[in-house]
């Protein structure tokens, strides 16, 4: 298992980690199989979406902020109940395909850590499983 | 990695791809392990739910349409900001278990491509990982 | 593939299954790789979040209940359309990393079955894929 460290700068933020994941694949010389990204946090998430037009990021985080507001009738008293809910809805793991030494992504896709209770230093855990040779 | 091509006919649609995935498992003679489905698109998603009563599909797409409307105060100007948000919420990958040469699904479950910005021709990427022999 | 049986006591409930999953990893002497949890149901989900402060569970289920109400303008007539929608939003599978004979979880994380149409007896299917030896 490998660890990628990600530092966020704001309370909520979609941080592009595509480069970090690809660098790890290259450094470890992974050729073929699957790559599991796992986030060991309960107030952030992992998500894949467009990394070309930054307005897409704003719209995703904007919708989450309007529909899961930071203040409300919550019972968790740490002021981050919304972040726990967002994390549960978006999800804390991703599964990616690796072929010919690179992560297979669609043309417009990037890999993002979704920060919902920052700024913080986060870890992304990474596990590679190689295709079995027959 | 294999590719399944899926053609959608409407702007939003839950398209059942269970048959296509099962046919691939059979054709490639996959016996045991996991099957990863990955969608290389940012305005569609993959989801598992009931494929028996079609009203379930209507209710899922209806809820998404009412709660993530196609027009709103979005900054992405291509008219499909809602599709990007839906894709992030529902997710773009699935992981399935394969045993004895078939995808293990619950009695009422089907595998769906959720189209949020169609009609389009979509690809679903498929990767099989066999169980390691001990 | 292994099966874990989970009994729920209420219509909606987040039931902690961390102990059951860990016990299986130990019993089967799994050392290293990934663990796939798959739920063969269409009115429940699997989710990872905080299992320390129980108020977090209430806030997650509370948000889902308020935003995906049990009664509404649904076409599915079995009275559980909301459960199907919640299941599609939260997701029915999880992927976990196994190292040194244990599931790798963040400090505050637990594994939950989210019941949306209980009480019922549910199954969680579990598949382990070992890391390939090089």
Question: Roughly what is the average pLDDT of chain A, rounded to an integer?
Answer: 95
Count of helical stretches of chain A: 3
Strand order of the largest sheet of chain A: 1-8-3-5-6
The CATH architecture of chain A is: Sandwich
Structural class of chain A: alpha+beta
Oligomer: homotrimer
How does the overall form of chain A come out from the CA principal axes? elongated
Helix content range of chain A: 25-40%
H-E order of chain A: EEHEEHHEEEE
Radius of gyration of chain A: 16 Å
- Low-confidence runs of chain A (pLDDT<50, min 5 residues)? none
The beta-strand count of chain A equals 8
Estimate nothing, just give the exact number of structural domains of chain A: 1
Instruction: Please report which band the strand proportion of chain A falls in: under 5%, 5-15%, 15-25%, 25-35%, 35-45% or over 45%.
Output: 35-45%
Largest interface: A-B, 33 and 34 residues
Which CATH first-tier class of chain A would you pick? Mainly Beta
Terminus-to-terminus distance of chain A: 24 Å
**CATH fold name of chain A, please?**
Jelly Rolls
